[in-house]
């Protein structure tokens, strides 16, 4: 699990790419799963497994990520990774090609549209259930926030419709289309889109309740998706996860646990055992970042101020005297008692206001328990976004300091 302290820092993406390449080439890891929507990422997954990329280039392909924040996956750093994955896969047999998948839950409408396209093409028994689920959401104009507000005050919602759609898809026999496992992966994608619809409907209903409810729906969905992907790739399969530190760093070692929040890092350790999960946190002392000043706002290059005194990042800056370092938690535990207690650890999301950073961007964390290793880069620079035109619909603003 490779983290990041922001969704807009170039070095985090470039170091995760370098580490991922070595894990794939030297250790046989089969896929990368990211904090992105399933339909968009699956389009990338299909493209990198073809002899010729259908879009013509990685930069063009990544324009599929047109929902705010577009820069999170639509950037030149990811374009370089996608180009490498495509070239790497060209030399491999179909069943050995490395995949690229999305773990997130935001893509309610896109997933419904993908399901309709799939069942109508296959002509199977799930057509009726898919149309019924799609029709249930149509009055809300493709706006999940409008749906959430509408069902908050009435007993009618679309929960039964999306659940029946998922059951109908699971009852269908495997498709016989495609060769070399392509049909199997397309069947998996259809069922995954139905699972996204089920959990997205739960997420959008939960978001108005506040507290930890919607956060937990989202991270449990991401963990369920990861488990499904590992099962898809067979026994002893190995995954590389790219997500924010707040998702991959064990929530039990932070104040998130006090609020009843869980995350993927915690759930994976609980499911597979701590020795089967290796979480790497990322962070920096100062630099620049891409973010928006409010939810849905145009992205800007913003300055990241020097980390506050008493924080984890400030401690590393002073101890390392401005150098970079990869630190193993086994070494940190024995180094000083200071590191075995809670320290403020910077978390920057897609929404960021540097002038208010000290009031809401530090997560109290016991670092050696939260991660298995930490990659510290003293000074970082902003990500390089692609010129993608953003779609008008954005996910609801839930946790702007992390997301």
UniProtKB/TrEMBL annotation:
Domain of life of the source: Bacteria
Kindly give the Pfam families that the UniProt entry links to this protein: Erythro_esteras (PF05139)
> Which protein, by its recorded name, is this?
Erythromycin esterase family protein
């Amino acid at each position: 699990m490779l983290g990041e302290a922001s969704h807009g820092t170039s070095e985090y993406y470039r170091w995760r790419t370098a580490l991922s390449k070595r894990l794939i080439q030297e250790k046989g890891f089969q896929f990368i799963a990211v904090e992105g929507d399933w339909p968009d990422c699956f389009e990338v997954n299909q493209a990198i497994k073809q002899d010729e990329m259908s879009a013509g280039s990685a930069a063009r392909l990544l324009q599929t990520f047109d929902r705010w924040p577009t820069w999170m996956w639509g950037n030149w750093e990811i374009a370089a990774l996608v180009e490498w994955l495509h070239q790497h896969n060209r030399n491999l047999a179909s069943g050995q090609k490395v995949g690229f998948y999305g773990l997130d839950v935001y893509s309610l409408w896109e997933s419904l549209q993908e399901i309709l396209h799939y069942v109508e093409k296959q002509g199977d028994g799930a057509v009726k259930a898919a149309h019924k689920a799609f029709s249930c959401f149509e009055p809300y104009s493709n706006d999940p926030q409008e749906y959430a507000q509408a069902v908050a005050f009435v007993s009618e919602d679309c929960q039964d419709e999306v659940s029946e759609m998922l059951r109908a898809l699971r009852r269908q026999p495997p498709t016989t289309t495609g060769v070399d496992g392509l049909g199997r992966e397309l069947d998996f994608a259809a069922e995954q889109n139905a699972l996204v619809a089920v959990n997205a409907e739960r997420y959008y209903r939960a978001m108005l309740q506040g507290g930890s409810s919607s956060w937990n729906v989202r991270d449990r969905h991401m963990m369920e998706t990861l488990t499904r992907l590992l099962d898809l790739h067979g026994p002893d399969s190995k995954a590389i996860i790219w997500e924010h530190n707040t998702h991959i760093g064990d929530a039990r070692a932070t104040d998130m646990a006090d609020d009843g929040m869980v995350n993927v890092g915690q759930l994976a350790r609980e499911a597979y055992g701590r020795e089967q999960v290796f979480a790497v946190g990322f962070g920096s002392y100062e630099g620049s970042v891409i973010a928006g000043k409010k939810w849905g706002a145009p992205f800007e290059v913003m300055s990241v101020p020097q980390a506050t005194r008493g924080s984890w990042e400030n401690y590393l800056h002073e101890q390392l005297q401005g150098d970079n370092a990869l630190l193993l938690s086994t070494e940190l535990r024995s180094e000083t008692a200071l590191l075995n207690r809670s320290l403020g650890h910077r978390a920057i999301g897609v929404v960021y206001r540097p002038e208010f950073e000290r009031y809401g961007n530090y997560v109290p964390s016991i670092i050696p328990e939260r991660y298995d290793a930490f990659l510290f880069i003293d000074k970082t620079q902003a990500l390089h976004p692609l010129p993608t035109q953003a779609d008008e619909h954005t996910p609801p603003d839930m946790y702007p300091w992390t997301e």
